[in-house]
Records
---
Amino acid sequence: MKKEDFKIQGMHCASCATNIENLSKTLPGVKSVIVDYATQKGVVSFDENITTVAAIGKSITDALGYKITSVVERNLEEENRSYQKEIKQQKNYTIFSWLVAIPIMLGTFQEYWILSSFVPVFLANSYVLWLLTTPLMLGPGRQFFIGTYRGLKHGFTDMNLLVSTGTGAAYLLGVVNTLFPNLGFGGSEVAFFETAALLIAFLVLGRYLEVLTRGKASEAIRKLMGLKVKIARVIRNEVEQEISIEEIIVGDLIVVKPGEKFPVDGVIRFGYSAVDESMITGESIPVEKKENDTIIGATINLTGLIKFEATKIGKDTMLSQIIKFIEDAQLAKPKIQKLADKVSGNFILIIHILALFVFLFWFFVGYDIFFTPGSQFLLSSISLSSVPISVFAVLLSITVLIISCPCAVGLATPSAIAAGTAKGAEYGILIKGGDALERASKVNTVVLDKTGTLTKGKPAVTDILNVGSLDSNQILQIAASAEKGSEHPLGEAMVKNALEKNLVLSPIDHFQAIPGHGIEVIIDGKKIYLGNRQLMSIQKITISDFVEEKMQKLEEDGKTAMILAVDGTIEGLIAVADTLKENSAAAVSALQKMDFEVLMITGDNWRTAEAIAKQIGIQNVLAGVLPENKALEVKKLQEQGKVVAMVGDGINDAPALTQADVGIAIGSGSDIAKEAGQIVLVKEDLRDIINAFELSKKTMRKIKENLFWAFIYNALGVPLAAGVLYPWFKFLVSPELAALFMAFSSVSVTLNTLLLKRYKFKYI
Amino acid sequence: MKNAPKNFFIISLALAGFFSFLFILTANNQRGVEKFDIYLGMIWIFVLSFIVALSLAHMFKKDKQNE
């Protein structure tokens, strides 16, 4: 089974996305399809032995007319060109529509208009109005009729149908009234051309606003893709040469001058510089980088010349991974959107049934009982007294169709998800889609892995105690000299600490490792033992009560204490421990203040685990948990009804990250953990957990608000359009006012979503 | 299944025709209704019921496929 992304051109509403999904599912070899209207993208799972994306695309194009292109390598310029073309087209349509609609409106309203003296009389002539309206219907209005034809040809209904039925009916009524004024449909005095013209003008305006909003959804991806470097300076055969980024291979040595961007990910082999990583991590302060430090492609080299070795290229670079992450995120629909899709999917059918009933009611019952001569549509020139019963009922029916276009419903969720995930990505919080956002907003329990998540995961020297004649620097110098060649993490920590203190290490004459106990070394003719209690006991070196007491104290604090003995005398103790990350305690404290239940999970023994937990302020500890049982512990918590977020970094955390309701992977961790996590924190800062939760809550609230705005227009508009208030207040919504309402619902959703851009994270 | 869209189209047309006919029958017995009212109503009923019938037919097809 293969999964591939594809790009769609020509979608106009959420129903188009549903139609593509429905059609694709009927094609042979296709397992599942998700189409996102906001980003005009889709992802299809299919059996590659039966079909291809090209074949699926062809079937969709033949059946529905949408252009499908496979996304092997995205062409940013081409996408941007095509998007700009679409914006330009809709903008031109809008300008043209209004340039024509305004004279039509002035002509129709001439006798009511306060500026009637300025409006030429010929504009009121129904033939002139017909002449003006026709190019509007054939130009900007054509897109709705073409969409309707394509849909009906294959039995699909979408908002084009609602628009076409409404505008088409108004236009035809106008034509009939102009050509046959005595037929009884109201005559040339009630032309209906302004209804058709204003409908088209408002609908085209709505479509233009939608295209602009849709662009906002893909803006984050376009921005990120814009960060990519095109040319790199590579040293091959000792010659520096400029090549395109696609030609870089893993292992290439690349030169980056100050002010330039790193083209791909890699490791510094020469040089020292400050690097601006803000575009990837959101961290505004430049990070100092030296030899052997890793660098991320697309970040900027600020100060020194750097030569680095490419380790990740093409789609493996962090930038490409982030782009993929956001693209996938926009296609993962939350439950709330699935519900909205279901509602809007059947909405068009329901509205047509409703329009049918509205017509029948006003034709057979309502008109006779409730109609009052002299009544008018709100903000319309049509005098309802001059139209017959059939036209009256048809107009109300048209208004219902127009007011209920579910465009805003289609935009509500995807636009908020796109804005939320983009906002997160800007600050190094990658959220894998609406589904993850929805679950993250409901979390009440946070399980934190210890090593690599709360702690740095690398042991460091924490205490050096002198219990003999040597001072602490001498103790460290001897211990580090003894451990110089050692690959043991504890030894490495001592060597690192000695080098940081600029201590000069002595050469060793003899080295012997005593597995499980320590080492025996001869330096300057002195016999050195460095290790645990057992080593001292084997060598018959007495540990005094004072030393024992100090050791126990260190061990109670979760540290590993080692004894240094020189020529049979204990000179000092060196304690090594995994150190806490800078903001671990602050993050835990903030989570607790926000009423999250915080637990620490670790494979360490109880004493070490509790010591660390105490430092951070965590009361609930799950210690001695084997890696394979971490997922089980998460499951136990879920069985207690808790919504669990698991935060981890290692390969051993992957099952627990998958088991949890929300898996949060730390960016510095393994690729497997990142793959398993639904949220990835690019920075090491654990306070981003809080940022991620708050952003999720904010985005979910935005989705709900958007859906409210989208549905409230329909919920209020449809009964008004059906004439519910007419019997009491003689109040009727005209079709053109209905189109204005509909355009406003899209505008409300768009503006509400844009507010999310102004959201500020608590911890930056 | 290949001919399904064509069949649905014909069935929907027939249903729309039937509803329009019902409308004419009912409207003819209504007092104060002019001939042009009946024509316009008939066309409108035909359009709307055709769309509804076609949508329902496809919904039915989709449900069948899901089964």
Note: The longest strand of chain A covers residues 455-466.
---
Amino acid sequence: MLMPDKRGYFGRYGGRFVPEMLMIPLRELETAFRAAIRDKDFRSKLAYYLKYYVGRPTPLYLAERLSRRMGGARIYLKREDLNHTGAHKINNTLAQVLLAERMGKSRIIAETGAGQHGVATATAAALFNLECHIYMGEEDMRRQAMNVFRMNLLGADVTPVRQGSRTLKDAINEAIRDWVTNVKNTYYVIGSVVGPSPYPMMVREFQSVIGQEARRQIKRAEGRLPDTIVACVGGGSNALGIFYPFRGDDVRLIGVEAAGLGLDTGKHSATLSAGSPGILHGALSYLLQTREGQIRETHSIAPGLDYPGVGPEHAFFKDNGRATYVSVTDDEALKGFRILSETEGIIPALESAHAVAYAAKIATKMASDQIIVINLSGRGDKDVAIMAERGKGGKVC
Amino acid sequence: MNRIDLLFKRLKREGKKALIPFITAGDPDLGTTRDLVFALEECGAHIIELGVPFSDPLADGPVIQAASLRALRQGTDLKKILVLVEEIRRGTDIALILMTYYNPVYRFGLGELTLQASMAGVDGFIIPDLPPEEAAEWSGLARANNLDVIFLVAPNTPLSRARSVARKTSGFLYTVSVTGITGKRKGIPEGLADYLKMLRTVTDKPLAVGFGISSASQVKEIGALCEGVIIGSALVDSLAHYGDKKDAFIHIRSFVSSLAKALTGNHP
């Protein structure tokens, strides 16, 4: 069956739970998106920029020293950290900004958590000379000050969001309020596979380039598909991007959520592991919520994972068992961060370090002829301030 | 026929328009909400919208966001609001509508909530993030319990869609005056008269206009074009503005009375 269905559902998840003002704009967006991906000009323009501007294809790199250290499976890294702007986010923002331009929109808005999506959106907006406004939680602006500076350099306006937990969830609320108000000339670039239909499908489509490349590359390198693919899950765009082209294959797909200080402390962002179905930001999916249906505040050392919701297609994959969702704590993620830096000379984003940590853990129990692919979704330069704060300039863990 | 239908019938006969104030339940506490409902009725309100606080009210401006937060801090939830409605219902026959985001409804359970709300004396629901496309189950259950399901149209709703939304709404059609979020605005939105005239060509159901209405002059002008006027942020703001409950009530009584007067030409 085709996913999502006509109403934007992946099984029982997804849909379009938005104020009336957005119903027609979402329909227009879906029509424009479907036409664009069928249009040869759009596709070749996007392919051109992905190659010459972003630097795709990104390498699939055999992490030999990390593999040897773990003493088990062969570990490959899909190097999304090598993209222009340092993360997978640009795959989606470039495509969506191209779509916005095609739709004749003059103003771009976006939310951002870690700042990576904000930077990637500001970058694409600069490239196509469009006005750009980014909403970012005040707490995140403090944690990721360098990215705020980058967005400003790129000509974007960063609006601090002071409501609620002052993180990603609240930035999305503000971006939606802006969109509702300025929908006529404004295009909202959502940064993950979340939100009302068609966003989850659209962002999946634009991020699937990760999995398509990885599939070709691992076949070339190993002559076969991997046994396991591991990716971190906040909203879930990098995970779905690498999972999706493997969905019909005999490959274990593992999404790693942020267990923060531990699932039993309540201070985490592990939506699929510890949440329940509900409606937030326009879609029915898993949520971290109270018994009364109020959205819970979340915690993760990785700002990009600090979100109480998750993409509806991940909820669908969880329920039907196609993917498995696990979680690692802040401390475990820090170990992943450190081990990759030390063994391979690659400093991962704290978000991606969650995937590294879990993959390292299971690799030791796997045979030496087995293969794991980690989606290394971003680079860690943005996180040095958090690390310095935590480690007080010395050893981090 | 429920209270809302009967009300609009009566008002039509009398040549009057409905004054529909919105307040956030539990802001600053449920006791004040109860007292406020009675005060609003005395001052000429015809229907009261009680806002159910939600942590992420994405269709609301800063005033109602802040009110929701205050109400949540008091531990306000749907269950307590239903108890409050039951209590209010013992003292008045005024129409009561709950305005809530969908997630608290979903968590409560659709069947359970429609049953309990109906028993408590609620007359209808407005759920701004539940468009007709997603509301089939909810509408069926609500109607079965004699609750109105009030849908919204906005200035960017095309006429063909407005016709279908109007067919599905019951009680009245919530007509959003501007493409935007809740909050006070000055003047009358451009094109509102034409927009209402167009809506009139696709439905006979009452049109109630909301979002951005905060003054007697706006109420007077807009009231002439539709069957009901909804006042939200202006009221919620003045409640928050006066630290002392007595002062707040004095102000709100005079404010709402002036709106009622502007709407009907005479004090009820």
Note: The CA atoms of residues 114 and 303 of chain A lie 5 Å apart.
